[in-house]
Specification:
It contains three helices and 19 strands. By secondary structure, it is α/β, with parallel strands linked by helices.
Length: 194
């Protein structure tokens, strides 16, 4: 018997264990999806305070002056925490099966994917697991970047465009590539507005 046949035999003998989330969670997500479509998704871009209000109604913890754009996709707002001046740009995906925390002045650019959930592909039941993501203050997640479950992005770190990380990123480092690798240290110059 080949290894492929053995694997297929093991998988066929297991059973799917049913939904990964309880009925209350699934019903809340249905209500959120309807509210998202009717009151969030098609709002004008400048109405950040309205979208923040709506997210708070669904349990999100948001600080002052947060910018959440209308095309952001948030799986479960009650697992989202944004501190003052944090920003989620259009087309960001927040797969909040576990908590996602954005500290002060974090910018998550368009098309980035923050993914807290995945599956154990070595287990024949393919169970779901979820681990929180935390992004430190003044960090920047660039366009189309991917952050996997359980990752902590250090203060001031930059994850470059289209980079992907499944490991923690150190503070004040710039990362690029897939898998993301440090390419240089981030150094903040004095503001030209002074």
């Amino acid at each position: 018997m080949t290894n492929k046949t053995k694997t297929a035999d093991i998988i066929s003998k297991t059973r799917l264990s049913g939904p990964s989330f309880n009925l209350k969670n699934r019903m809340l997500r249905v209500v959120w999806d309807l509210a998202y479509l009717m009151f969030f998704r098609f709002t004008p871009r400048p109405l950040h305070s309205w979208r923040v209000f709506l997210l708070r109604c669904f349990g999100a913890r948001l600080g002052q002056h947060c910018h959440v754009y209308p095309k952001v996709k948030i799986w479960a707002p009650w697992n989202l925490e944004m501190h003052d001046y944090a920003c989620l740009a259009n087309d960001v995906i927040c797969y909040t099966q576990a908590r996602i925390t954005l500290q002060e002045r974090v910018i998550v650019s368009q098309g980035a994917h923050l993914c807290t959930g995945s599956h154990d592909y070595n287990d024949p039941d393919f169970p779901l697991f979820a681990r929180p993501i935390s992004i430190g203050k003044d960090a920047w997640v660039c366009a189309d970047a991917f952050i996997g479950p359980g990752v902590t992005v250090g203060e001031g770190a930059v994850l470059g465009a289209r980079a992907a990380t499944f490991k923690n990123l150190q503070a004040w480092q710039v990362y690029s590539g897939n898998p993301a690798q440090p390419v240089k240290q981030r150094r903040i110059r004095a503001s030209s507005h002074e």
